[in-house]
Sequence to fold (133 residues):
Amino acid sequence: MQSRDGVGKPCHYCKRIMLPNSSEKVDPIRSGQECSVDHIIPKALGGTDHKDNLIFACRRCNSIRGHINYDIFYMFANMILRNHPDAPTIYVRDALVTFITSLAESAINNKRESKRAVGIALSKFVKNVNNSK
Fold:
């Protein structure tokens, strides 16, 4: 993990320099650069607040990532966000959907990987359903 305060440091994903969070009115274009803490494994998916599960990310990247798998989003950030860090959020979200859809289509075209992906998803689904009872 980076220092205790990610302000002034680059975002883990897009590498833009992060700004402090402010209660004052901030330029909407720069507000996405405010520093936030991102969970590698989201809390909603069982992640914790342990320091090994936390990274500093700008508010925009953290928001766009949501509950998307860290490795998938990091790959997307490495290929797209770092080359276009100031692109409008609407285009970044669209590119992310296209990226994930393309990954899924690649898996579908590869029968063995497709079956593996279905098996993993089914296993996780059954586990979650059983744990919710």
In short: The helical segments are 28-31, 59-65, 70-81, 89-109, 111-131. The CA atoms of residues 40 and 71 lie 9 Å apart. The radius of gyration is 17 Å.
